[in-house]
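Folds abound. A case:
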Amino acid sequence: MKVVIQRVKKAKVTVENSVVGEIKEGLLVLLGVTHEDTKEQADFLVKKILNLRIFKDENDKMNLSVKDIGGEILVVSQFTLYADTSSRK
């Protein structure tokens, strides 16, 4: 599994002019999954993401998780994270 995580004030996914996913403050997660990934790896990743302390607390320190702030998570499938961009001749 490969993942890119971004803190957001808001995020949405639109397909053919229709919103298919939308959140307010929280995390945008771009997730690439391959056939070799396991349920155990997915479970670990979920726990890790939920507990990342990347939001500011009352002292302006990055010390709060998405759970702590009552934030939302938007997960977007991103198979291109596994793209082979090497130049082969």
Residues 39-51 form the longest helix (13 residues). The two ends are 28 Å apart (CA to CA). The chain has one helix and seven strands. The chain has a mean pLDDT of 94.
